[in-house]
Amino acid sequence: MFPFPFPFWDSNCYGSEPVSRKTRLERKLRFLRTIRDDLETRLAGLNAAISSVEQQLNQEDVTQA
């Protein structure tokens, strides 16, 4: 679903040196923004699908009246 799993924002597997608090927070922020962007894209798709179905229902109501 997402490009990388959340446990990796605190991971130290990228090197042997300790990761600073700022670096961890930057990784976390980047991850959370990725999640948000993905959810916004999915929400836009759902809104478009809902709108399409609503339009189809309205057209059927007009033709049946």
Provide tags for this entry.
single chain; 65 residues; rod-shaped
Descriptive report:
By secondary structure, this protein is mainly alpha-helical. The protein is built from one helix and no strands. The protein has one helix spanning 21-64.
Number of helices in the DSSP assignment: 1
Average pLDDT: 85
Distance between the termini: 44 Å
What is the overall shape?
A: rod-shaped
Helix and strand pattern: H
Unreliably modeled segments: none
Overall structural class, as computed from helix and strand content, comes to mainly alpha
The total beta strand count reads: 0
What fraction of the residues are assigned to beta strands by DSSP?
Answer: under 5%
Main beta sheet strand tally, sense and closure: none
Helix content: 55-70%
| Radius of gyration over C-alpha positions, nearest whole angstrom | 21 Å
In short:
The protein is mainly alpha-helical and 65 residues long.
Any chance you could write out the topology, listing elements then pairs?
Elements: H1 21-64
